[in-house]
Amino acid sequence: MSQFLLALGGIFSNPSFYFTVLSTTVPILLATLGCAIAESAGSTNMGMEGIMLMSAFAGVIGSAYTGVIWAGLLCAFAVGVVMGLMVAYFALYLKVDIILVGIAVNLIGSGLSAFLMYVLTGDRSATTSLQSGTLPTIVLPGVESIPFLGAVVSNQSVLAWVAYLMVPVLAFLLNKTTLGLRIRSVGEQPDAAASVGVGVNRTKTVALLISGLLGGLAGAYLSMSYLPYFTKGMSGGRGFTALAATAMAHNTPVGSLGTSLLFGFFYALSTYASSLGIPDQLVAALPYLATLVGLVAFSIGVQRKERARSCGVAADSVALP
What we know:
The protein has 321 residues and is mainly alpha-helical. It has 13 helices and two strands, in the order H-H-H-H-H-E-H-E-H-H-H-H-H-H-H. It has one domain (2-314): ABC transporter involved in vitamin B12 uptake, BtuC (Orthogonal Bundle). The protein has helices at 2-12, 15-40, 48-66, 69-93, 98-121, 149-153, 158-176, 178-188, 190-195, 200-226, 238-248, 253-272, 280-319, and strands spanning 137-138, 156-157.
């Protein structure tokens, strides 16, 4: 037991662990922010996993075939937007259940990426032979030389900084702009919003477009920063983790940051836990166990609030003459 605690203390005192936490949080955070803005408009983007997979594949193909890193990022970006619009078209205009649309998008992302990988590269293995360009990292002058802090925050990918900066950007968008007000009003009271001239489907489409865009960036990070290639299923359930993180965060950008860091912590811990003598199977299950615990905690909190609200309503009705 003492050796286990000693090894655990060694991990938690190592700045590279916290560097890993920040880097593993990035795709979860981008996907969570995407799910949060869609959910704020009353649309559940269940297809985030498929969007991330297709965008990760597009990033590798675009980068490898053009030789330009930013072309790969643009391809991933475009695929995310197109798939977000596809969800909006089927769910809002063809009236297909949005959960079923999301499931279909996930299946498309998993199957189509593997099929296109074989068609374009001839690779039958799980990993493509194509190497993507690696997005540049940002070195912070003056910060890099600060003990511990410099090793944690410096040399993070440019997309990592984009992800963390998106938190205040989206918070401002949702709370301080006309578009944000429309998104929240459509999500909370669509009939009331429609009665004052707000285009409900148009607003939801914009929210799903932004959601797809963020999912595209999450996929690009996986195949152009986290790893320099594409492999089947490389999203590893992060799209579903993002849905859990969104629910726990009550669809708020700041809350999304907190819950994403929580899940990023467990993803990072899973990469270090083998040094603690923990079985590999349990190590691989750590992020998913954290997701289950988070969902249970969120469900308990919601039930308590509902009971408190119902008790308050009952008390008010008794107090009425």
